[in-house]
Design a protein that fits this description.
alpha+beta, Ribosomal Protein S4 Delta 41, Chain A, domain 1, 211 residues, 44% helix, Structural Genomics Hypothetical 15.5 Kd Protein In mrcA-pckA Intergenic Region, Chain A, five-stranded antiparallel β-sheet
């Protein structure tokens, strides 16, 4: 069952900004920016238990799952595929970054990954001129991403692109907006794990899932 509670509670629990609320994450309202304690902790009361080595590795895995909003079973499939490579940690990030919902967000076509999934599910996004409704669809270099020709779809993507460009967020070099009207993006190369600046340590995840 997918988590349906407050998104900011997840960031507080994992004590890391996971960028689950779009623009709100760049404002002073962000609980991580304010230094808010994890759920269930009151200021001056109780004592936080120190995580064991196992707990720290498990927490990194939780951060990765929540950041990309991927269920554990699917996450394990991604890891099994990444583990076949020479560098499982980098390959895992590369696979996660290639998810269609993540690429739509990275291009600025959506305000958050949740918003990107909604656009995809509601048939607002096309890949290589074909409608795709699966958020976990893995893109590849050369793929062209654009909104559906419908006026509503184009407006939704344009509005998100305008708002995202006002954020202090960096867009990747491996996926670029190549046309403005109507918006069109392209995956120019495989994602660079070093550029992604993910809020977790991939190597710790590899160590945790290979125990």
């Amino acid at each position: 069952m997918r988590y349906s509670g407050p998104r900011c509670r997840l960031c507080r629990r994992l004590q890391k900004k996971l960028f689950l609320k779009g623009q709100r994450c760049f404002t002073p309202k962000c609980p991580i920016e304010k230094g808010t304690l994890p759920p269930g902790k009151s200021k001056g009361k109780g004592r936080r238990m120190r995580l064991t080595d196992y707990g720290e590795h498990q927490q990194e895995t939780q951060r990765a799952k929540r950041h990309y909003w991927v269920p554990m079973r699917q996450f394990q499939r991604y890891f099994a595929e990444a583990y076949k490579s020479d560098n499982p940690a980098q390959e895992l990030v590369r696979i996660l970054e290639r998810r269609l919902d993540n690429v739509i967000y990275r291009l600025g076509f959506a305000l958050s990954r949740t918003h990107a999934r909604q656009l995809i599910r509601h048939k607002h996004i096309r890949v290589n001129h074909q409608r795709v409704t699966i958020p976990s669809f893995l893109v590849k270099p050369g793929d062209v991403l654009a909104p559906d020709p419908r006026e509503q779809s184009i407006k939704l993507v344009k509005d998100a692109l305008t708002m995202r460009r006002a954020e202090p967020d960096e867009f990747p070099t491996w996926a670029k907006v190549v046309k403005e009207d109507p918006p069109e993006g392209q995956v120019v190369q495989m994602p660079d794990p070093d550029e992604s600046q993910v809020p977790f340590e991939p190597q710790m995840i590899v160590e945790f899932l290979t125990r």
